[in-house]
Model the fold of this input.
Amino acid sequence: MKQSKSKVERNNVENLIRRMLKKHQTPFMLIRRDILERQFKRFMKALPNVTPYYAIKANSHSDIIKKFARLGTCFDVASIPEMKQVLDLGVSPTRIIYANTIKSESSIVASRRKRVRFMTFDNEPELYKIAKHFPRAQVLVRIKVENIGSLVELSLKFGADHDQAVYLLKKAKSLGLIPLGVSFHVGSQAKNVENYLQALEITSNIFDEAKEQDLNLKIVDIGGGFPIQHFDNEIGVNFERMAQTIRQQMKKLFDRKVEFIAEPGRFFAGPAGILVTQVVGRTFRNNKNYYYLNDGVYGDFSGMIFDHCRYEFKTLRRGQKFLSALAGPTCDSFDTLSTNEELPELYVGDVVYVKSIGAYSCASATNSFNGFAPAKIIMV
Ligand SMILES: *Cc1c(COP(=O)(O)O)cnc(C)c1O
Done:
């Protein structure tokens, strides 16, 4: 019998889960190394002119960082502990960008000591701090850009106004810093390619304006945001097509000497993660089946809060589906995952799993609220 590709994929995933259930207690998060590699290769194929800096906040598990380090990516860190983690794994400081526009003075000192010279900023007071503690640091000005249609807004808190960019870069130069270019972030899970196109257009205007004022900029950092499919039948996510449009825009607007970098987080780590939970209790209330899982919003489903993410809950059972609710294990009613899932009848001990949950999940889980520890991470 000929099986569809998605059916084969589902069987493979479920066989993997069954194998792992024999060895490990739930909840656990499987991280598939082959998928990490696949995502890296997809990125490099679709955007061969762009150097990726993996944004480790998406998932900072050391084996993930090691895997990407071996594949040759660079890294985006936002704090000194993140920087230290990457450096301790043997990554050269020249492969790191300190992409937090607001850094404490002690962090800038630490960055200098660790020789991580490349960083972003978006305001003048920050430049004075950097100049004081890290002369000749290499800086990119982060600008505010549209985040229309993105799952997570990343320009509400950060980003200089466009008309300030050249002024700030010249200021950086006058303070003894090395102004290299412009960075932006169109928002996470950015399905709307227009955001990138518009941001590139604004950036190219800034490059032109800088040139007129004798400032030669070299680097464009297009940030992260590259979307992934959280649902099997999700429409509107086509990374390859999006990348092609982005490349055309780069070619149209920029000199061939300009270098591009990016900071993918979700796209690199998300698809590799499979979260496996079990039903620890069930009841019938509000006219539906209520299933209580051993992981919830305080744990690996924290992305439902912080990442505004929704997930596709799957089970190993087939058959007729009923209106069901899923809740986490803590005593908080807020720890409810869904009140309108169509699921087959489940029993205590049954598995509920979620694919493509490798990013912004364990990364933002609490340590052990109510005594429930987050899922164990298992590299496969
Ligand atoms: C979070 C973040 C990223 C990663 O974004 P994704 O949408 O996960 O690709 C990259 N750069 C900066 C500055 C960020 O804050």
